[in-house]
Specification:
The complex is a heterotrimer of chains A (155), B (423) and C (910).
Chain A: H1 5-14, H2 25-36, H3 41-50, H4 55-62, E1 76-81, H5 84-88, H6 91-102, E2 115-120, E3 132-134, E4 137-139, H7 144-152
Parallel strand pairs in A: 1-2
Antiparallel strand pairs in A: 1-3, 3-4
Chain B: H1 18-23, H2 28-33, H3 38-47, H4 60-65, E1 78-83, H5 92-99, H6 101-115, E2 119-124, H7 129-144, E3 160-165, H8 175-182, E4 206-210, H9 211-223, H10 225-231, E5 239-246, E6 252-257, H11 262-269, E7 279-283, H12 303-308, E8 317-322, H13 327-341, H14 347-364, H15 372-382, H16 392-406, H17 408-417
Parallel strand pairs in B: 1-2, 1-4, 2-3, 5-8
Antiparallel strand pairs in B: 5-6, 7-8
Chain C: E1 2-6, E2 9-13, H1 19-25, E3 49-53, E4 62-65, E5 76-78, H2 82-95, H3 113-121, E6 144-146, H4 156-164, E7 171-173, E8 180-182, H5 197-200, E9 206-208, E10 222-223, E11 226-227, E12 236-242, E13 245-251, H6 264-268, E14 283-286, E15 289-292, H7 295-306, E16 312-315, H8 322-332, E17 337-338, H9 343-358, E18 361-362, H10 366-370, E19 374-378, H11 382-385, H12 387-396, H13 399-407, H14 415-422, E20 429-433, E21 445-448, H15 451-465, H16 476-491, E22 495-500, H17 506-521, E23 526-531, H18 537-543, H19 548-555, E24 560-564, H20 574-583, E25 587-591, E26 603-606, E27 615-618, E28 623-627, H21 640-650, H22 654-657, H23 662-672, E29 695-696, E30 727-728, E31 775-776, E32 803-808, H24 822-827, E33 832-835, H25 837-843, E34 850-855, E35 858-866, E36 874-878, E37 891-897
Helix pairs in contact in C: 2-3, 8-21, 8-23, 9-17, 9-18, 15-16, 15-17
Classes of the chains: A alpha+beta (155), B alpha/beta (423), C alpha/beta (910).
The complex binds flavin mononucleotide, iron/sulfur cluster and FE2/S2 (inorganic) cluster.
């Protein structure tokens, strides 16, 4: 599917904020990802064209960063903090519970396509560890039960 | 006790909007500097002894003084706020971003004026969604009120300010990696010299400054250098956002005079260890600082004293290790982070951290061997400052080298018992 | 000059350089990976670590990267410091954690920089006990093979491909120890210089894919210094042979010419030498059927054709050596010798030489071109016509931005710092051409127009510089452009004008000359560079013989015609060729590959290719360069000049009777033709002995010599003699660096890879010790007072129903010989005609459909390419790819949709 008018408009709105087009590429990929959940090869091609970049240039950037998804993800993305404070505060138990509950390992999407479970580095919520983000919501002071409950709200 | 940065943080967790910020004296500092000579502002900040709060503690005023000034200076110049906050264990900038975005904008405007930058970017880590929302709102309010944009208050000075949200990499916090990220490139670091002050973003003079650093500026401008220095208990001026996480009674974040001791932070503010746990050590300021232990509890937390104690104050947010948590596991967790975030540019980092991580994993999983500790010690030497291209890998060596020093028996037990004793 | 201290001893150094450069220049064995002499420092690999000390009292010091440390006065480093030594070994150990250790099956083995550095640092025991990371390899086309598991992440490949050569379909992907270097997805590498990855990559990730088909280790190859024959630039190469088969070509450093890099045509065109189309035996045509015959029979037949015949004419060749051409000239007599190129080409070359001699502008070497800081390209498509020139121009646009970074005190070798400071700034490059070129991405402005309008632009630029130059009337836009170009050239320090043979337009040459002259008039020293079509076009033109039309006229009275290494079909259109063979009854052809001429000749003599003969070629720079025989061919193949001597004997030619070795021909030639007298300086004479010995073509480790022919004869044959050069066909001989024109391969103790080049230069990336090879034959006259060219051509006016057909070239395809290489043929385009979309509509021609093009008396069915870059009224026809050869363009022609073939059958595109 080519870029929608909406996506294109949003990307073009970024142009005046940077002196070069290529500087927009990360924003552009994030915009497309916001609309589609992930960035397909085809989207990559469309963005590259719009930004006068080569596919190789854009993909070199895409594969460097962490929050750009080059594979399809579930309806909700669960980012589970695996950094040091959360680890001290019980990350392992949290992960085990979520993985068994969802039937997916880290990096996988549940069979029903509802959740993709990903590790994330420190979410800056260390005083409320362990923490996770579901889509755009931060959940703090978790334990396995609370985490399980939190996921109930995402259908 | 004065808490200039956080005095107006709302209890309900909402942001201080423009109206409220102005009501408590917001943007007065900015109005003031627009009447000052930029060099005068630079001097003021130099006099204040302000050191960067992003981790390295470089004197802020001095950093600015390397920016070419005057009519022949290249243009545009850029002021960049480093709001990438990805150092594990660090959660201080988030508070400032969410609670008082206008304070940041004002601080940035002051810094921008001081170096005569025309364009400013806030480089925000992608996961800080709430910060992004609030910054957007604050930026819109500031533009609306003509604090930003063309010809601010008829001064003839114009400043554009943009929010850039990152796609996520620890390297983006390293100031030159950040520049590449902002240019839409892979966030590999850049050679220094030339320093960003001379050739930075898009090849133009640029300053990168931490959120907390920038947020102090309105207060220095309003109250003067002497006032700022007096806030501190030591030679490094000002207050500092200190935090604690781990198994302490009250993890949290506090604005306190610079130089508050580790013991005060740990015992008074964090409430000491949780019931049944004993203190074993802490990383004073994020993942890339050396462990401090019992013997260091009375060290004042400032740049100089912590360094003397063999560590770094870093971001000032400490991570506390208790006696029921495996130090080897903790270090493995840290090194896994660093190995994962290595940009892959220089050999000691990408190869050494992979090796380090594998070794620690093996130890933790009971597959450790004789010689592993020597190899780990070697890796910390291998990745020492100067040996690598940027500071990521040397940072990774800090917790490891100090853990090998302070928790050596724990490492040895892993090898000897062929398992993690805590599991 | 600065004084620096290395391991406590003082040395003089260039303060504008870094300590790695300095150490290597001084001969120290300091290992490195990411640094490259042509690409500078980026500090990624950390392999070149040394200890730096503040002063003599500093005993602690700190580790620094030599490549990132300026050689400032007083700099003190220790290479042999224990910490530095330990660290360097550690870097290798780190690099090797993921490396597969598969040297025995790796193509790089034996000339691997990683192997060398591993040995040098003393890392010899693997301590890393964990799994290695693995990658899936990509298909990158017929030139470059990828084996990513061997990667050590030095970033050289991506720096060369993207930053140096401007390729965009290659990158680094992902991060940490998982960085992948390649393409977004499998596919043929698009950049025309991709083959340099083979030499740039310090290990076996990128290797020569053509070599894979007939793999031989470097130490088992027999080499000779050679010259690329696939365009007129004269890049220096080092071809390697084993068992009578040419196995590969690598770059042979010449600081003034190709430096460190070749184009892919030059690197991969070599397989023509092994082609099944090779003529390996004399052929005698009787009643229309060609029969292989013995050498004796062939000479008997030749005697019949030549002995006692008065009127024998000879047609030379722009792709044959000077010596071969001169032998033919001597055989038939100067009056009966013709240049073997079409009249327009001949006229153009003559004009170029005249201009170069009389205009106060220097014809620059490729290195000088890299250093030019404002360039006007008039009518050329360098990438496809003179490829290595395009790579040089990519460097030239960095010159002006360098001035800015110099001011910021960023040393030029600090590569990424310079690039980050410069961003997308480029020095002025103006390209006026008939269609888009592969350099347009770095051009300040492009101008696409008909040849006459391109010439007019040049005239206007000259006029804008100097009002005494002839005036043109042009559109306001063109006038403004001319003014902009004039301004850029005038304010530059080293302005350059490039024109040449691509467009076949004398006006364009004159216009270029006028610009150069005008620059001189305003006090600016200009450089003027002309491209030429073939490897010896310039040399043949300097011999000064009449062109093909004259030969043509002479043919009908001739008793016999001798055609030297020339497919006449590539210089004249089909009807003319047919007529030629109707008129010429007895044709003797000497050539190496079957072509339209050899297929009609009565007697064909098998000539050696560049790899099987020696000789001198003159490049477009006017540089005479000697190429040397790589190996002794089997059977009856021999150098053309020797065949011609054989024929001379039949005709009892007394002059040739004394020619026993190449030097005899060279001396006779330099005596006979003053313009070529300088060729004696191109390389040492065959009598040269170094410490009493010849220079070995085979490396000291050449193996299996005693066994090579054991299946035929167990006693080892004596190595063949080489009377023609100071080189021997053996591994014994002078072990050190020979004179630079005689370097067969680069190899120094401890440095088995091409990186050993460092030790053959006086200063790294500078001239080879004793000077770069070649002898320049053309130097510009001082301002000779001869005036401007005044024939300003008429502006282009489109015609109704006719199109001006202009030539288009392709790096892979337009060159006759390299097209015989399978790898080149694989990527060569099919013949096409390109036109503007509006013209296509007018002609009812759809993209990819077939068009019938009638032009210059011939008709071609070719594919239609609709391209917005084409000016209206002009169509570009790809030339050089059969059957579109020998056509003289530009010329007016007609275009129409091709009729479907009458008798069913599969439709065949041209
Ligand atoms: C790997 C790495 C990550 C860093 N991340 C951050 C960061 O997230 N935020 C920050 O302010 N500084 C970070 N820094 C420090 C910056 O490079 C830089 O010193 C700082 O932004 C300067 O601001 P300051 O002088 O106000 O402290 C990081 C440094 C390194 C080496
Ligand atoms: S230390 Fe080297 S590999 Fe590691 S992040 Fe810095 S530059 Fe990249
Ligand atoms: S050659 Fe110096 S760091 Fe690579």
């Amino acid at each position: 599917m080519p870029l929608s008018a909406e996506e294109r408009r949003e990307i073009e709105a970024e142009f005046p904020r940077y002196p070069t087009r290529r500087a927009v590429c990360i924003d552009a990929m994030k915009i497309v990802q916001r609309h589609r959940g992930w960035i397909s090869d085809e989207s990559l091609e469309d963005i590259a064209q719009l930004l006068e970049m080569s596919l190789d240039e854009l993909d070199g950037v895409a594969t460097f960063y962490n929050l750009l998804f080059r594979k399809p993800v579930g309806r909700h993305v669960v980012l589970l903090c695996d950094s040091v404070s959360c680890w001290i505060m019980g990350y392992d138990r949290l992960r085990e519970r979520l993985c068994s509950k969802l039937g997916a390992r880290l990096g996988e999407t549940t069979a029903d396509g509802r959740f993709t479970l990903l590790p994330i580095v420190c979410l800056g919520a260390c005083d409320h560890a362990p923490a996770m983000m579901v889509d755009e919501d931060l959940h703090r002071d978790l334990d396995p039960e609370k985490a399980e409950q939190a996921l109930e709200n995402y259908k | 006790m004065e808490k200039p940065l956080t005095q107006h943080v709302r209890r309900d967790g909402e942001m201080l909007d423009l109206r409220a910020y102005e009501a408590v004296g917001g943007y007065q500092g900015m109005r003031r500097v627009l009447r000052m000579d930029p060099r005068e502002v630079q001097q003021l900040v130099k006099d204040s002894t302000l050191r960067g709060r992003g981790g390295a503690g470089f004197p802020t005023g001095m950093k600015w003084s390397f920016v070419p000034m005057g009519p022949d200076a290249p243009h545009p110049k850029y002021l960049i706020c480093n709001a990438d906050e990805m150092e594990p264990g660090t959660f201080k900038d988030r508070l400032l971003l969410e609670a008082t975005p206008h304070q940041l904008i004002e601080g940035m405007s002051i810094a921008a004026w001081a170096i005569q930058a025309e364009v400013a970017y806030i480089f925000l880590r992608g996961e800080y969604v709430e910060s992004a929302r609030r910054l957007q709102k604050a930026l819109a309010e500031a533009c609306e009120a003509r604090y930003l944009g063309r010809n601010i208050f008829g001064s003839g000075y114009s400043l554009e300010m943009h929010l850039h949200t990152s796609a996520g990499r620890y390297m983006c916090g390293e100031e030159t990696g950040l520049l590449n990220a902002l240019e839409g490139k892979r966030a590999n670091p850049r050679t220094k010299p030339p320093f960003p002050q001379v050739s930075g973003l898009f090849g133009k003079p640029s300053i990168v400054q931490n959120v907390e650093t920038l947020c102090t500026l309105p207060h220095i401008v309003n109250n003067g250098a002497e006032w700022f220095k007096k806030l501190s208990r030591t030679a490094d001026g000002g207050t500092k956002l200190y935090g604690a996480s781990g198994k302490v009674k009250r993890p949290g974040l506090w604005e306190l005079p610079m130089g508050t001791t580790v013991r005060e932070l740990l015992e008074e503010y964090a409430g000491g260890m949780r019931e049944g746990l004993r203190f074993r050590g802490l990383l004073p300021g994020g993942a890339s600082t050396d462990f401090l232990t019992e013997e260091h509890l009375d060290v004042p937390m400032d740049f100089t004293a912590v360094q003397k104690a063999g560590s770094r104050m870093g971001t000032g947010t400490m991570i506390v290790l208790d006696d029921k948590t495996c130090p080897v596991g903790m270090v493995w967790n840290l090194e896994k982070f660093f190995a994962q975030e290595s940009c892959g540019w220089c050999t000691p980092c990408w190869s050494g951290l992979n090796w380090t991580e594998r070794t620690l994993r093996a130890l933790e999983e009971g597959r450790g061997r004789e010689g592993d500790l020597e190899k780990l010690a070697y890796q910390t030497w291998f990745n020492a400052p100067g040996n690598t291209f940027c500071a990521l890998a040397p940072g990774s060596a800090e917790p490891l080298q100090s853990a090998l020093k302070y928790f050596r028996e724990d490492f040895e037990r892993h090898i000897h018992d062929k398992r993690c004793p805590w599991k | 000059m600065a004084t620096v201290y290395i391991d406590d001893k003082p040395y003089t150094a260039d303060p504008a350089q870094n300590m790695l450069f300095t150490s290597l220049t001084l001969g120290f064995n300091l290992p490195y990976f990411c640094w490259h002499p042509a690409m500078g420092s980026v500090g990624a690999c950390r392999q070149c670590a040394v200890k730096q000390f503040r002063d003599e009292n500093d005993t602690r010091g700190k580790l620094v990267m030599a490549c990132m440390t300026p050689a400032a006065d007083g700099t003190r480093i220790a290479i042999h410091d224990p910490d530095a030594t330990k660290f360097r070994a550690g870097v290798i150990e780190g690099l090797m954690t993921n490396h597969p250790h598969d040297c025995p099956v790796c193509d790089e083995g034996g000339e691997c920089h990683l192997q060398d550095m591993t040995v040098m640092t003393g890392h010899d025991y693997r301590r890393y006990p964990y799994d290695k990371r693995t990658f899936r390899n990509q298909y990158l086309g017929p030139f470059v093979n990828q084996e990513m598991n061997r990667c050590i992440q030095c970033y050289r490949c991506v720096r060369f491909y993207r930053e140096y050569a401007g390729g965009r379909d290659f990158n680094s992907f992902a991060l940490r120890d998982l960085v992948f270097f390649g393409r977004h997805k499998d596919g043929v590498l698009e950049n025309e210089f991709s083959g340099n990855l083979v030499e740039v990559c310090p290990t076996g990730v990128f290797t020569d894919a053509t070599l894979k088909h007939h793999y031989t280790r470097k130490w088992d190859l027999q080499f000779a210094p050679s010259i690329c024959t696939h365009c007129g630039l004269g890049c220096n190469t080092s071809p390697g042979e084993r068992y009578g088969m040419l196995r590969r070509i690598v770059n042979r450093y010449n600081g003034e010419v190709n430096g460190y890099f070749l184009c892919d045509r030059g690197r991969y065109g070599y397989e023509c030498v092994n082609s099944p189309q090779r003529i390996r035996q004399p052929l005698l045509r009787r009643e229309g059927v060609a029969q292989p015959v013995s050498r004796a029979e062939a000479l008997r037949a030749a005697r019949e054709l030549l002995a006692g015949k008065q009127n024998v004419i000879g047609i030379g060749s722009p792709r044959a050596s000077l010596e071969a051409n001169f032998a033919l000239r001597t055989l038939v007599g100067p009056d009966h010798f013709f240049a073997g190129m079409a009249d327009d080409e001949h006229r153009l070359l003559t004009k170029m030489i005249q201009v170069l001699r009389s205009t106060p502008a220097r014809t620059p070497s490729l290195r000088e071109i890299e250093q030019c800081d404002a360039v006007l390209v008039l009518g050329e498509d360098p990438t496809n016509f003179a490829p290595r020139l395009a790579l040089a121009l990519r460097q030239s646009v960095r010159q002006q931005p360098f001035a800015a970074t110099d001011k910021m005190r960023i040393p030029r070798w600090l590569d990424h710092a310079v690039r980050e400071a410069v961003q997308d700034d480029k020095g002025p490059l103006f390209i006026a051409s008939t269609h888009a070129t592969r350099l347009d991405d770095i051009a300040a402005r492009t101008f696409r127009a008909a040849p006459t309008d391109i010439a007019r632009l040049g005239f206007a630029v000259a006029r804008a510089l100097d009002t005494s130059a002839p005036a043109t009337s042009m559109s306001g836009e063109a006038v403004a452009l001319a003014a902009q170009i004039a301004q850029a050239l005038k304010t530059a320090h080293r302005p350059l004008i490039i024109a040449g043979g691509g467009l076949n337009s004398e006006s364009v040459i004159e216009a270029a000359a006028n610009v150069a002259r005008a620059l001189d008039t305003v006090g600016k020293e200009a450089r003027l560079s002309f491209t030429v079509p073939e490897c010896n076009s310039m040399g043949l033109a300097l011999m000064g013989a009449a062109p093909l039309s004259a030969a043509f006229a002479a043919v009908k009275d001739a008793d016999a015609v001798i055609v030297l290494e020339n497919d006449l079909g590539r210089h004249m259109p089909q009807p003319a060729l047919r007529e030629f063979f109707e008129r010429a009854f007895h044709v003797i052809a000497l050539d190496c590959l079957t072509n339209a001429t050899t297929e009609r000749a009565e007697l064909v003599l098998p000539a050696g290719t560049f790899a099987e003969s020696d000789g001198t070629l003159v490049s477009s720079e006017g540089r005479a360069q000697r190429f040397f025989q790589v190996f002794v061919p089997s059977g009856d193949i021999q150098e053309s000049w020797r065949w011609l001597c054989d024929l001379g004997a039949l005709r009892e030619n007394s002059e040739m009777a004394d020619w026993k070795e190449l030097d005899d021909v060279i001396i006779a030639l330099s005596n006979a033709i003053p313009a070529l007298a300088g060729i004696v300086n191109a390389a040492p004479f065959s009598g040269l002995r170094l410490a009493g010995e010849k220079v070995p073509r085979e490396p000291h480790r050449y193996s299996g010599r005693t066994a090579m022919h054991a299946n035929i004869n167990v006693s080892e044959p004596k190595p063949p003699d080489d009377p023609d050069s100071p080189l021997s066909f053996s591994m014994e001989g002078f072990p050190d660096q020979p004179p630079s024109a005689l370097i067969p391969f680069f190899w120094t103790p401890g440095w088995n890879s091409i990186q050993s080049t460092n030790f053959y230069q006086k200063e790294i990336a500078g001239p080879l010790r004793g000077g770069d090879p070649g002898a320049r034959l053309i130097e510009s006259g001082a301002s000779d007072g001869s005036g401007y060219f005044i024939r300003v051509p008429q502006a282009f006016a489109p015609r109704e129903g006719e199109w001006l057909v202009v030539p288009a070239y392709h790096i892979f395809g337009s060159d006759e010989q390299s097209l015989h290489s399978a790898a080149i043929a694989e990527v060569a385009p099919k013949p096409y005609i390109a036109m503007n979309p509006e013209d296509a509509v007018l002609l009812a021609l759809r993209p990819e459909s077939l068009a019938e093009v009638k032009v210059d008396g011939s008709s071609y069915r070719v594919q239609v390419r609709v391209r917005p870059d084409m000016p209206k009224g002009i169509a570009a026809l790809l030339v050089g790819v059969p059957p579109v050869v020998g056509v003289h363009l530009p010329a007016w022609g007609t275009l129409q949709p091709a009729q479907l073939p009458v008798e069913g059958g599969p439709e065949r595109a041209a």
